[in-house]
């Protein structure tokens, strides 16, 4: 297990106050590690060797942890999260954020690789994607539609932006790459003797992909092979069950890259109430099944900012709006659960990844 996962062992059984205290301490440790000279130099070295920018569209399920699953340094892969990995590039805010991100990378000469993910469990359908009602075929069909939207937006020749549909099997943390020719590469089925053939396999899967981009995709596959071996050696009976005890709304939750703690909802959909309702339903189900204590759950809102002054002030307003909006949805739809809700509001300093807690929004 990674260090964050080790730190989370036993956390589900502690009181809600202890869990919240642990959460903010975790955020502080993440920031301290992110700004350390070693981590900074590791990112710079990685980007010098692998200049392709990587972004991933994924479910809010905390088990979908692509940086850990690929042994990639923190800060390299840019995540976008929403319930079930449900996105639509026609959503005004999402389209703007993605377009700005791509333009920023292209302006300095970098190509962009977009991983569009769905997830499933090989061991049990009930450990699949709750957002799609555990229907893997429906989740996969949705990712294919997102891929078509990415191509319609950024071009279908894939010279600069290359979208890949990618399955994520949560029992082993295994990637399943869907090639442009209909073939797939299930990393869980690869043996050590096949490492030397990976680049050729990627070329067969994505023949029109620029060579540098294939070379930059290769370490993700190699890292995933290492991660799968680690998971299989360590075992993870409890890690593969839904045990989330917090709902996070907004952006800036990279420090929560670990399984089964949080349901993370990006502020992208015009109908933000829908994923909030579904996340609250999962929390309520976890309490009723005894997977988490029923003494409380956390609603955490966050918005990132890059600059002090106006940018930070806008982030504060956004975060407060998100926490108030989400809390009101939960109070209206889940009045009994709302009585156990603890609300926290924060902003995230993006350059340092520092989570800055604002005043509490509840009176606990």
UniProtKB/TrEMBL annotation:
This is Carboxysome Shell Carbonic Anhydrase. Residues 105-179 form the Carboxysome Shell Carbonic Anhydrase catalytic domain. One of its GO terms (molecular function) is carbonate dehydratase activity. It comes from Thiohalomonas denitrificans. It holds the Pfam family CsoSCA_cat.
């Amino acid at each position: 297990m990674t260090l964050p996962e080790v730190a989370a062992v036993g956390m589900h059984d502690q009181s809600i106050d202890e869990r919240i205290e642990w959460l903010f301490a975790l955020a502080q440790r993440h920031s301290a590690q992110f700004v350390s000279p070693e981590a900074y130099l590791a990112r710079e070295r990685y980007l010098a060797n692998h200049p392709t920018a990587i972004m991933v569209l994924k479910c809010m399920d905390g088990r979908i942890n692509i940086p850990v699953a690929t042994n990639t340094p923190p800060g390299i892969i840019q995540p976008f999260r929403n319930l079930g990995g449900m996105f639509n590039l026609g959503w005004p805010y999402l389209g703007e954020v993605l377009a700005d991100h791509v333009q920023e990378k292209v302006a300095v000469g970098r190509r962009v690789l977009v991983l569009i993910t769905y997830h499933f469990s090989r061991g049990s359908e009930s450990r699949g994607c709750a957002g799609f009602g555990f229907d893997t075929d429906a989740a996969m069909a949705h990712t294919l539609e997102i891929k078509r939207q990415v191509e319609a937006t950024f071009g279908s020749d894939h010279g600069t932006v290359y979208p890949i549909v990618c399955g994520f099997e949560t029992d082993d943390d295994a990637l399943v790459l869907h090639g442009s020719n209909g073939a797939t590469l299930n990393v869980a089925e690869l043996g050590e003797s096949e490492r030397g053939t990976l680049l050729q396999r990627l070329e067969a899967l994505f023949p029109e992909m620029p060579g540098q981009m294939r070379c930059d995709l290769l370490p993700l596959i190699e890292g995933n092979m290492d991660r799968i071996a680690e998971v299989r050696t360590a075992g993870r009976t409890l890690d593969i069950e839904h045990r989330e005890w917090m709902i996070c709304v907004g952006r800036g939750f990279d420090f929560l890259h670990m399984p089964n703690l949080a349901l993370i909802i990006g502020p992208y959909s015009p109908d933000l109430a829908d994923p909030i309702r579904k996340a609250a339903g999962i929390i309520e189900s976890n309490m009723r099944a005894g997977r988490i204590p029923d003494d409380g759950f956390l609603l955490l809102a966050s918005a990132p900012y890059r600059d002090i002054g106006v940018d930070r002030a806008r982030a504060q307003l956004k975060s407060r709006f998100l926490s108030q909006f989400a809390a009101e949805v939960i109070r209206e739809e889940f009045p009994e659960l709302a009585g156990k809700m603890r609300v926290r509001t924060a902003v995230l300093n993006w350059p340092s990844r520092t989570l800055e807690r604002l005043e509490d929004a509840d009176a606990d």
